[in-house]
Design goal:
The complex is a heterodimer of chains A (about 120) and B (about 170).
Chain A lengths: L8 H8 L2 H12 L2 E2 H7 L4 H13 L3 E6 L2 E6 L3 H39 L1
Antiparallel strand pairs in A: 1-3, 2-3
Chain B lengths: L15 E5 L3 E8 L3 H9 L1 H7 L9 E7 L6 E7 L5 E12 L3 E5 L8 E9 L2 E9 L3 H12 L2 H15 L2
Antiparallel strand pairs in B: 1-2, 2-8, 3-4, 4-5, 5-6, 6-7, 7-8
Helix pairs in contact in B: 1-2
Classes of the chains: A mainly alpha (about 120), B alpha+beta (about 170).
Chain lengths: ~120, ~170
């Protein structure tokens, strides 16, 4: 199993709950970009864009690297592992959901048999 | 981590997830109840919201859950992390056949998948198939890039929460 850095859930969640930040992720999915070019693209001040990128960085979704005066941003995911992670993420999500669903189903069955016993 | 197999009637039911071709994701799982019961847990909002997003995971919860489960009906799920930001997932039911299948769109993104869930009777148990088809290979790749980064560690926490809930 791959070991992941472990930013708290609410950090990633909060990071992705903003439309601009989701846009940044989409953008970086196509190509790495500097903060300046992201600010241009999203018609935002440099300071505003820096804040968004910081939020994404803290959540582990984006990595930045400063070379000279330019800070370049890229996705925090290694693309070769992305598919395996994606499948694994779905598996975990659905396993979690279905375990909870199992509980509810057994409650429902209990209720049904209680009712028919009456 | 996942060692409580007995809470829901004994048998350990495995969740299988696979990518099929360029555009599809398929999830399969068996449940120890007939399709009518599983369908009900899926189509009634008050039941659905109890398992789709397991509760109180680091403060993330379902803020609202509107589902009009019939052909042509709409749904909208909103998640919150405690602050004022919420994240919405919404779309339309393309086909609803009670106890058999539900097909819906995912309209929050530009090239959302079409999701089909089917409930198949196997001698009183239900084989559930959850099937996502993306409009193009690129759309699947994009979903893959966009969600892969954040999800694994989040789901690990979900897992922990669920096993602690089962006690």
């Amino acid at each position: 199993m791959v070991q992941y850095a472990n930013p708290p859930l609410d950090l990633s969640f909060a990071a992705l709950s903003d439309a601009t930040r989701r846009g940044i992720i989409d953008q970086l999915g196509q190509a790495d970009a500097s903060i300046t070019s992201l600010a241009d693209k999203f018609q935002m001040t440099l300071t505003g864009m820096k804040k968004h990128v910081q939020v994404l960085e803290r959540a582990g979704l984006v990595i930045t690297q400063k070379v000279g005066r330019v800070r370049t941003c890229k996705l925090g995911t290694r693309s070769l592992e992305a598919e395996a992670e994606w499948i694994e993420a779905h598996r975990r999500l659905f396993e979690a959901r279905f375990e909870a669903l199992d509980e509810i189903i057994s409650e429902m069955k209990q209720e049904e048999s209680d009712e028919s016993a009456r | 981590m996942n060692q409580q197999g007995n809470s829901a009637g004994g048998a350990q039911n495995r969740t299988s997830v696979e990518r099929r071709g360029d555009r599809e994701l398929v999830v399969t799982r068996t449940f120890n109840a007939p399709p009518s019961t599983v369908y009900r847990a899926w189509s009634q909002p008050e039941l659905f919201q109890r398992w789709w997003v397991p509760k109180s995971v680091s403060g993330v919860s379902l803020v609202s859950c509107d589902m009009d489960v019939r052909t042509g009906g709409k749904y909208r799920l909103e998640f919150g992390a405690g602050g004022s930001d919420t994240m919405a997932f919404y779309g339309k039911y393309l086909e609803v056949v009670p106890n058999e299948r539900i097909v819906w769109t995912n309209d929050e993104g530009e090239e959302g998948a079409i999701t089909t869930v089917t409930f198949e009777d196997r001698g009183g148990k239900t084989v559930l198939n959850f099937h996502e088809v993306y409009p193009s290979k690129e759309a699947l790749e994009e979903a893959l890039q966009g969600s892969a980064a954040g999800l694994p560690e989040q789901l690990e926490q979900l897992d922990e929460l669920l096993s602690s809930m089962g006690e």
